[in-house]
Amino acid sequence: MIEPDPTLALIWAGIIAFAIAAYVFMDGFDLGIGILFPLFKVGKERDQAMNAVAPVWDGNETWLVMGGGGLLAAFPLAYSIILPALYPPIIAMLLGLVFRGVAFEFRWRDPRHRPVWDFAFFSGSAVTALAQGITLGALLQGIHVEGRAYAGGWWDWLTPFSMLTGVSLLIGYALLGACFLLWKTEGLVHEDARKLAKMLAPLLVLAIAAVSLATPFLSGQYYKRWFAWPSVLATAQVPLLVAIVAALLLWTLAKGRERAPFFLTVALFLLSMAGLAVSIFPDVIPGRVSIYQAAAPGVSQAFMLVGAMFLIPIILGYTGWAYWVFRGKVGEGGYH
Amino acid sequence: MHDQAALLLARTQFAFTLSFHFIFPSFTIGLASYLMVLEGLWLKTKQAVYLDLFRYWTKIFAINFAMGVVSGIVMSYQFGTNWSVFSDRAGPIVGPLMAYEVLTAFFLEAGFLGVMIFGMKKVGPGLHYVATCAVALGTCISAFWIISANSWMQTPQGWTLNSAHQFVPAGSWWPVIFTPSFPYRLIHTLIASYLTTALVVGAVGAWHLIRGHATPQVKKMFSMAMWMAALVAPVQILVGDQHGLNTLEHQPAKVLAMEGDYRPSPDGAPLILFGLPDSRSAEVKAKIEIPHAGSLILRHDPHAPLQGLTDFPRDEWPPVPIVFWSFRIMVGLASLMLLLGLSSLAARARRGLYEWGWLHRFALVMGPAGFVATTAGWITTEVGRQPYTIFHVLRTADSVSPIAAPGVGWSLAAFAIVYLAAFSAGIWYILRLMAKPPATGEPDHPDQPTHAAGITPAPAIEGGRA
Fold it and tell me: Where are the domains of chain B?
């Protein structure tokens, strides 16, 4: 048990993937509201947009700690290679999160400097989204590893591809935020959110297409995984489903539906993650380190699995309850 | 092979971000429990004064909590960005302890915080109290796990190495979680949080008493805080003494650095009150000492022999002056806290608790003392563990990420600027809230999504266009 165990490694890869998915769509919509914040009118509209997520953002962000802490605990080798390799974007993300997190409280405390904290909320959210997208792109394009450590340079992460993934995630979060507001608000914010969602949805579809087309040409491995016969019959389902969901998204937006666009956008995110899995599984650092190599010893993963099995359902339970308490639409003065 | 400048910068960055971070949770832990007590007393007695105080301190809690969260996320990633070798090698042990902190504490706190701050009207007082208790419980569970991880780094046991040279549990997790220093460190830290909070609450009460606002709310908070200081400060000093004896057993060099005992004392060590430690000549210059008192405290026998740092290899000494001074700052402030608690008892006995001006000024000055003492205590124990990250097993110089000095310098500068900007603003907002006394019928949190449209409960909502 003091060496890695392949079954446990696979289970933990699933749990970490779940935590990342939960993070991306939950913090995604409140980061998205931050990204769109300057487009809402100063005053009631901005108050209303922020009030829609004020009671839940903290819980949403905890999934990021779960992702980071879980990676350290379950795949320490991956954690200790990826974070130094992506040092600048990771630090930028952390600083962005500081600004947008404190803005939730500070903007109500200081009406005189509210424009400053509104800008901190916007820029913190945007930097966080960009940095997370860049991190993903830099990981996909490959990291230079020697022995058990990162051996690349300071600027390796900065390429046209990582910029593309950065901007794509920014658009994706913005769309999630717009769709969340479409669902959870009424009045002027609701109308603005609809216009924004209609504009952002085609942009996100374009961004997903661009990243999907660029990825197979990054290295031979990705091309083979997607286009080798006969597995292409299975992998082709992912872009096919993306096309169907994207069409549904555009259609529901055009029809004026309020709730469906949010969940369809979440579905687009989940399909993108499925595509990511096709590209890299079972590697955690593509082409270099597999989940089986990076896994913590069985004794560590088993110990955590006992707790995770009981605690994650409980967490989902009370998180769901907190969302249920703040169900319904947010008016100008807050949740009804 | 390691770049000494990069190592020093990485250590500085960790010390800076951690010291700044811990200010907030140490207040969060104490304040969450205080809020639980206030709301419980309100539900039990139905006296409005407790609800007013609950609402008053909840606003301060919300700001403090947000700063704790954002500075805490930095910590959870900094192990990887700057201490990657440590993360790779110790991840299998400290990682699961921190993962349990996330699963049992962080989600609990964050999940119920929204209801605690915004949900009173939505869920009613009973369920709301459950949320408040869940947040308070979460803060204590969080302390349990993170101090377990820290204590394993201080007094590691129950580990073996695997083929990848990682530290892994040799068998059971019990000896890993419950290391010899863990109970002492946990109790000492939790009490420190309660004491820190009591001093802050006491100082706010004192400020309003000095300003002539002797309202029932102000009197209540001052009285509660002074009870806490009077009861807990002596307990903390006793616990600290026991913690010191435990450290002497497991990390003697740390205690010798705290005491300034460079040379062995075969006939009993003195207690050095003040002096200037000089590690080059291995002596404390210009010292004021009480003969034999050191052995009396540490061995409970004035003539018991004590080792000196010179009994240890030179490259295993912690940086003595830092440890020596931070320890004295902590102990000095603890003595003042004890004096404040005793003074309040005297004032209470003579019915002067709300009248004695000097007591109020003393309590006001002691407001930040808990933060300073807690930080000094952590500096003592963390710097005292040097030159190791995992005591006697993994050196700090062998734990650091392969990131060159300019990169770490750049990020350290960014952290310094962002933290100073964001957190000084937050502390300023907290002070501004404290500057106003709690009102009768204290309004709820102004960022108030539970109110029906059109009712704006606080002036803070207005003036968005200023």
Answer: 14-179+403-451, 188-399
